[in-house]
Write a structure and sequence with these properties.
By secondary structure, this protein is α+β, with helices and mostly antiparallel strands. It is built from 8 helices and 7 strands; from the N terminus they run H-E-H-H-E-H-E-H-H-H-H-E-E-E-E.
Length: 191
Amino acid sequence: MKSPRALRAALRKIGAVPLSGTAVRLVDEKWSLPEDVISGEGARTKGGRYNAPGSFRAVYLTENAEVGLVEIGFPISAGGQYALENAVRVTVVPVRFRLARALNLCDYEVRIRLGTDADEIKLPLELFEAKGQRTPTQILGHAVFKEGWSAIQYPSRHDSEVCNLVVFPDNLSEGEYLHPQKPKRQTTRLA
């Protein structure tokens, strides 16, 4: 990954991608109210792949709920089945979105221009958290946020065919939105 200064310069030369559609947000049942689903407060407090703890609000979405369960660390047994006996109740909330300025990290050419690759983007956060360091993706997320982009579309760590999305609510401009839909509660195994 390039240095923070070089990242910001590269971002000014990369074209933004408009995105719209529906993705899903996976939340603990107690945080399934619409205002909680898209607040980004939990990520601001605890951090995430593209924002360090205590930094800025971020809403993490995925196009595939099953991949999302793996990404949030939902318990899976050795046989590959969801281990529901010790799991929190997960609520799957569809979220309609329209974004004007998204950075598409699913695009190989964009990653090259930022001096990164899919392997670096998918590094486990734990490797850096244990040392009290920000991850390369958190450094990138900070630069993207500071440059005023709305979101980052990025490849899933667990399935290269799936793209996830992190939205920065504080950077949404007129005409951009996140609209949570009626939640779907998951109480059984997903197939």
